[in-house]
Amino acid sequence: MPKNKRIIDLSITIEPAPGPEHQRLKIEYEKHEDTAEYMTMRFECEKDDLPKGLGWANEYVTLGTHVGTHMDAPWHYHPESEGRKAKTVDELPIEWFYSDGVVIDMRHKEAGELIDIADLEHSLEEIDYTLKPYDIVLVMTGADKLWGTDGYWSRFPGLGKESTLWLCEQGVKVMGTDSAGWDRPFWTMVQEFKKTGDSSVIWGAHFAGIEKEYCQIEKLTNLDKLPPYGFKVVCPPIKIIGASAGWVRPVAIVEE
User: Of the candidates 156, 164, 181, 154, which has an alpha carbon nearest to the alpha carbon of residue 72?
Assistant: First the structure.
């Protein structure tokens, strides 16, 4: 790796952690000594023929596509996007997942607060940056510091329908956040809906994908290690046929 480049991992580890039931996962580990007998059968050999009599390690993982750092495809939001069948994660254009990255710092926003268009515009003015088509926009809330706690799932700000559509109108196809969700926490949307009766607040940022095709990365981390812009993001999701999301290990490439 050239000395003038840094590669920064933007993903959390897939591991058991407190959280909602749909976020639970199961990992079964086969150790080297567990598979030695199977290897002797497959290779028609004796244990003494294997290094220290050991086989290979193996794991079996059961988890949802929205567990860990993952990419939501338009199919997650609704069966239609821009008047056509919404794309599943395996149908997304690979070209979307390598582009210039931009960090929008929203760490001053309180848990449950809405990140609106004015917040986005002000943040971009502060860093003197104008969005262009296919920029990858990363919203930093600081919520990744709560990973492993119950608060991770409820203590973050989020975008709404209008602010998400505004990003789409700038030509952004991929956007992401270091919190558990792109929208505000469920409790905030529930409170607002009960108070106002306005159903547009229900999952508004996600449902914006019905009008404009876009995808989002949830559960990022390490955005505080990035400059506001001047770096590349590489973030192709795993191609799971017909799926609403795919796991991703995004990285930022920073040239110094």
Answer: 181
Taking the C-alpha atoms of residue 157 and residue 126, their distance in angstroms, rounded to an integer, is 20
How many CB atoms are closer than 10 A to CB 10?
A: 26
What are the tens digits of pLDDT across the range 207-217?
999 999 999 99
Spatial separation of the C-alpha atoms in residues 8 and 144, rounded to whole Å: 15
Which candidate, 108, 255, 239, 237, places its Cα nearest to that of 173? Answer: 237
CB-CB contact of 152 with 143 (8 Å): yes
- What Cα–Cα distance (Å) separates residue 93 from each residue in 49, 78, 82, 142, 250? 47, 18, 16, 29, 16
Report d(CA 140, CA 108) in Å as an integer: 10
CB count in 10 Å sphere of residue 213? 17
String of DSSP letters for 148-204: TSGGGGTS--EE-HHHHHHHHHTT--EEEESSS-SBPPHHHHHHHHHHH--GGGTTH
Are the C-beta atoms of residues 91 and 239 closer than 8 Å to each other? Answer: no
Three-class SS of residue 62? strand
Domains observed in the chain: 26-62 (no CATH), 70-255 (3.50.30.50)
pLDDT at 164 over 80: yes
The helix/strand/coil state of 112 is coil
Q: Are 216 and 72 in contact (CB under 8 A)?
A: yes
Percent of the chain with pLDDT over 90: 95
Place of tokens 């109108």: 169
Asked if 175 and 216 count as a contact pair (C-beta separation under 8 A), the reply is yes
Interval 27-41 mean pLDDT: 97
pLDDT at 256: 82
